[in-house]
User: Fold these one by one.
Assistant:
Number 1:
Amino acid sequence: MNVYRAAADTWFVLIVTSDKLPAVAEAIGRPDLLTDPRFSDPQKLTANMEQLIAILDDVFGVQPMAHWYDVFNKVRVTFGVVRGPEEVVADPQLKLNDIVVPLEGAGGKLTSTISSPIQVHGVKKVPAKRAPELGEHNDVIL
């Protein structure tokens, strides 16, 4: 698994295992990688991964992520766009699954937080609340 940059500074994660290299090489227009002795078997591929990454960096930087999204979906390889914090908190799937949730009592611009991604059947998640101020509960505890 490696992180690559597409055109327009979009970063993505791509997993290219030796069994997926033929499909990826053909799909990205680099069938010559399949006859390159540096990548001819799993051991050589692993030993020369830095060289392959450099080649892929050059290839991926030419096209926007929309292009690579279509390419990777057609060859059925595992990939994903690396999202910034502002994109993560707005992700509808994370909101629907109660992973990004409202944060009560924090104030200011802090309105959401990451909740536990684990859901236990029959157990309702407790709403997220701000962390206590330093020393806030000293009198109660002491």
Note: The chain has two domains: 2-81, 84-118.
Number 2:
Amino acid sequence: MGRSSYFHFKQFSIFQQRSAMKVGTDGVLLGAWTDVTGAASILDAGAGTGVIALMLAQRSPATIVAVEIDDEAYREACFNVSQSPWPDRIEVRHAAFQDFAAQTTQKFDLLVSNPPFFENDLPAPDRQRSTARHNHLLPFDELLAGAAKLLSPNGKLAVILPSRQADNFISKAREQELYLVRNTLVKANPAKAPHRCLLEFSPVPGLLREELLVIENGRHHDYTEAYKQLTRDFYLAF
């Protein structure tokens, strides 16, 4: 996936010159996969460039709050929202998620997050990239505690994580009375082991829906029909 100053989707573009984390497959997967059915209010925790918030605005009539702690990412998210078809439905807040969760009284039907997930790895030398990639500023416990506080009674939490961290996150979520109801394992190609998990949680226990998504067939850029179907409303190539 490209790393130029702009990334163009079918209905909007992302300016990403200053943000540490550029448009990537993880964010696009989460934005396309998340169930927006019945969601009138959505919170994007760790908005980055705003790509997930914009994808959800395209897919739903919801009002969206996007919270971002990094200065440069916040400015780019504001710009991207202002240039999109939905500036009246997306509000970008410059704040730590924990502070926002502690101060707001608003409840949300859906909370999405592509959270920083490196825990024991050495921090990246670049401060901005380290903030975006390492979860010392948004540990899983604090993300989940905030989600438990902010979700409406029938609300949902949707995240994408490395497969190796899924069990830990699921266990921590259960401690906050958030229960896994949907789990999609993501494989780069049929020969690879799953490397990502798309996870949906609810305050109400329910039957677990398990799925598998394979991104490419045997060759690079030879995308599966399932991946094309999931992302075709966004990617120009599909």
Note: The radius of gyration is 17 Å.
Number 3:
Amino acid sequence: MDLPEPRWPRIFPTRFVCAVATLGPLGARLPAPGTWGSLAGLFYFALFFRHARWEVVFAWSVLLGYVAVAFCGEAARRLGKKDPGEVVLDEFAVMPLVFLGWRAGYAAGLADWVALLAGFGLFRLFDILKPLGISRLQRWPGGWGIVADDFAAALAACGALHLGAWLWVLAH
């Protein structure tokens, strides 16, 4: 893949770039940083997008995903690592994608907290295991590889969440 990385984060000091990419202490100081970044993304979704149309959620996720490509790639370069575990802006940015079509789960009779918890768990599962070719996306260069696998994991979790809601409706 020859898609160039955004260059604009290079103007910022390393401390700022890394603070954005790690979401401050969430990635830099806490154990299991990917889980904390995902949990922050879950709260981000719940606060800002819970009742939004899927088009709005998707558009904002793509926009923030681009920002994540820029900052995650630049942070990785400055830290001298390919995909640093402490960089969690990627998980945060894509977490709302898990809940595209959110009302479908709600209409299936699932309590809000059940759908949120299931979506969170499914995202972490797909993000950690990287099945269905998701692991190949990590090979993309720089920030693109850091974010693309999470983007795909979020969409896979979204599909699994909808499938689970559909099976729930059939069973009840």
Note: Residues 8-171 form one domain.
Number 4:
Amino acid sequence: MSLQDDVADKLAREVLALVAETGDEDIVEDIKKVIGTSSTTLEEAYMTAVRVRRAEARAMALLDQKRRAGGD
């Protein structure tokens, strides 16, 4: 990964953890705006990381559900 991707992924993980803790979805957009004022490239990488992490979480939840259903 590049430095940009590393930073974007770290931010995405931190933000999504805080969203899970607080329930405040606006945090994602707030951080996006702050990043975008300095680096649109990092902003795009951050939003990609957020989408990837969310997709991963949904996929893992489905896998867990399938595992539980298969164990019956």
Note: Residues 13 and 53 are 7 Å apart (CA to CA).
